[in-house]
Write the C-alpha cells for this entry.
Amino acid sequence: MNKFNSISVVPHIPDRIKGLREIAYSFWNAWNPEVRSLFEDMNPYLWEIVQRNPVRFLKHISQKRLDKAASSEEYLDKYDQVYQKFNQYISDKKTYFYSNEVLDENEKENFLIAYFSAEFGLHESLPIYSGGLGILAGDHVKSASDLGIPLLGVGLLYRNGYFQQKINNQGWQESDYPEYDFADFSVVPIKNDQNEEIKISVTLPDGNLVAKVWKVQIMRSTILLLDTDIKENPPKFREITSQLYGGGQEMRIKQEILLGIGGVRAVRMAGYKPGVWHMNEGHSVFMALERIRELVEGKSLTFFEALEAVRAKTVFTTHTPVPAGNDAFPLHLMEKYFAHFWSRLSISRKEFLELGIEKDGDHNLFNLTVFALNMTAWHNGVSKLHGEVSRAMWKNAWYDIPVQEIPIDHVTNGIHLETWLNNDMRAMYDEYLQDWKFNIPNKDFWKKLEDIPDKVLWNVTNKMKKSMVEFIHQRIKLQRERNGETIEQLREIESILDPDTLTIGFARRFATYKRATLLLRNLDRLKNIITNSERPVQFVFAGKAHPADKPGQELIKRIYEITREEPFKDKIVFLENYDMEVARYLVSGVDIWLNTPRRPHEASGTSGQKVPVNGGVNFSVLDGWWVEGYNGNNGWVIGDGREYENTNIQDTVDAVSFYDTLEKEIIPLYYERNEEGLPGGFIKVMRHSMKTCIPEFNTHRMLIDYLNKLYIPAYQYGQLLKGDDYKNAKELSSWKRKIRAEWEAVRINTETQYNQGDEIPVDMEIDFTATLFAGDIDPEYLSVELYFARYNIHNEMEGYEIFPMELEKQTLHNTYIYRGKAKLPERGRYDYSIRVIPHNELLAHKHDTALIRWLDN
C-alpha cells in the first residue's frame, strides 16, 4: 500500500535570467534559433527529451544548471542579447502594418482581426493541429506578428490533440491519443479583473456547456483556446475538446458550435473588440449567428438588418476544392441544436434553414459552406486555380451570373519562412544576403541569390541531407525496437538511404486523391530507376491517414510493404508520425519534393512551398500553388495540366509522365558533374526555384494580400454599415427586400441585332439601344450593361468585356430607354447580350444581391 503523498517541486529561475519564462511563453523559439539555443545550451539532452518545449524544459531542468547559467558571463551575454531583441520586437511600431497609408492613425489603433480556426500548428510542442489547415493557421498568426498586423486567433484546446501515428510490423497505422497536461504547454488561463478564470457557456439541447478560456501568446499575436475538460461539465461535455476531428457528426456539430458561438463569447469576455472577423474554413461559421444574435437582442435590429452588419466585416476562406469535402449536417441535427436559436433571432425555421441549403443540392442537408457564403460579404479560395474551382463549384449561389464574375477571390497560401528555414541555410543567408528577414516578399532582393557560389549552396544542401538521413535512422530504429524486430533488422538501419543519392520526398495527409502510390503503378520501371548503380534514386515517405479513412491507411500499408521488399528495401522508407519536426527535416533534406494530387483536387498545398527556401526543387502535378509557381525553369511538372473524367486514364498518363521526366530530365541533370565536380545544371534549377518561389509563396506576402484585398475593405465596409446606429445596415436590408420582391417584374429587350456573319473591326464603336421594364424599382437602383464574351479557336471562353448603358428617357410607366456603345479591343468571336443588375452604393460588391436579368430572346 502506498503510504506517500506526491508533490511537485519546480526549479526557481534566478532573477538575472527571469526573462526566460516570458520568452518561453512567447513561441518565439518556433522561428528563432537564438531563442532555442538559450534553452538548449543549458541541457541539450533534456531539450530533446521535452521535444524542444521551453515551458516543459523550465519545469524539468535542474536548479544547479539554472544557477550555473545565471553565473556564466558567456551565457549572460547571449541571454542579454536575445532578451533585448525580444523586447525590441514586442515594442517596435515600425512594422508593415503601421507604415500602411490606407488606414488613418485612429483606424490603426482600433483595427483587430479575429481569426477563427479549428486547428493551429505553431510548433510540435502544442499538438492541436492535424495537417495543412493548422500549419497554415499557425504560419498566418506568426506572419501577422512579424508584420505588426493586429490579430487575435480563436480555437479549441484539445486534451488529446490529433492522434499519434504508429506503424506496426504489418504496416498498419495505429492511432494513439495521449492525454496532455496543459501545464506543459505555452498556455495560460485568462483571468478577469477579480483574478477569476474566464469561463463561457453555450446552451446545448442536453444542457449548459461551460468552457474555460486559455491564452497563447505568439509574440505580438494572441490566440484564445476553449477547453471543456473542466469540473463544471459532465463527462459527455468534457470530451467535446478531447480530440481534433474525432467522433461522429454530433461531436462535430458540438465542437463547431463551441468554436463559433463560444469563440465569440470568449472574445467578448476577454475584452477584445475586433473590427474584422475571419472564418478559416467553415468550421467556425456559427460565429456569425452569435454576432447576429447580439445585435438582434442588444440593438433591436431585425435578423436581416443584423445579417448585413455582420457579413459586412466577415471574411470566409474556403480550402476545399471538392463538394464532398464540405461539412454538411442533416436538417434534423440542425433542428436539434438550433431550434431555440432561430426563435431568438426572430426568424422562421424555413428562413434559417434556407441559408444553408444548396439550391441544386441535397435539400435534406445543411451545408456549412453555403451558409458561410451567405453569412459573409468577403470570400476567397487559397490559390488562383482554387479560386476558379470555387467559383465554378458554388455558381448556383449566384445563379445566372457568369462564373468569372462570382465574388469569390483568391489569396494564394504561403509559408512562414523562418519557421521552415533550416539553421544551416539560415547561416548561409546571413552571410550572403544581409537583411533578408526584412525583404521576404521582395522579388528583386532575392535575385542576390546569384551571388552565392555554387559550391557553397551545394555544400549546405548536402549537409542538410546528411542531417535528415541521421534523423531518419534514429526514428526507424525507435519504430523497429518498439515492434520487436531482430538485431539483424536493427543493424540494417545504417544502410538505409545514401546521402550522395538523389533523394525525393513525399509527405502529406494520406488521402486517396493525393495518390501517394502513383509511382508504384509500374514496379519494373521503378525498380530500374532505384537500382541503377551509376545514377540511383531513393524515396522518403511520411504522412497520416485519418483514423476513419481506411483507403488512406491501405496506401500507407502498401508503401510500408514496399519498403521491406527487395530491391526497394533501404531505397524507399516510410517515417511514422509525421509532424512539424519530421517536416522540417524532410523539406530541408530532400533534393526533390514530389506532389501527385489528382488535379484539381489540391486547393493549394504548402508542403512544397517549404522546399525552395531550403534549396530544394518541386516535381509536381500542375495543381494548387504550383500552377502559379512553375515557370519552366524552376522545377518539373507531372502530366499536362489536363483533367480527365476517367481517373484510371489520368493516373496512367500522370504515372508515365512521372517516370519519363524523372528518367530523361531530372536524373541526368542531377548526376551530370562539371569541372568542379558539381551538378551545375541542377544547381541552376535550384537557384531558379529559390529566386522565384521564396518571395512569392510566403505568409508575409499572403498576409499583405489579405490585408489589402480583404481585411481593410471588410473593416471599412463594416464601419460604413455600423455608423449612426446601423443606419446603413437597416437601409440596405430594406432595399434588398424591396428589390427581391420586385425582381420578377424586371425585363430587358432590344431591337439592335448583329448577325454571326457580321465582321466588325477592332476598336470600332458599336451602338446598342435597349428597353428596360423596371417594375416598381427606381432605375437609379439598376445598372444596364452590354456584355461580350470572347471565345478562342477551340471555342473556349477566354475573356469578357462589359460596357455600361446610359438611361436616355422614360417612355411609358416603369419603361425606360437605354443607349450604349461597345468598343471591342481584341479580335475573335464574341457572344453578346444585355443585362440588368441591382445597383446600390452600399453594396459590398457588384453581385452582392446575386440577382441578374439577361436580355429576353
Summary: The chain has a mean pLDDT of 95.
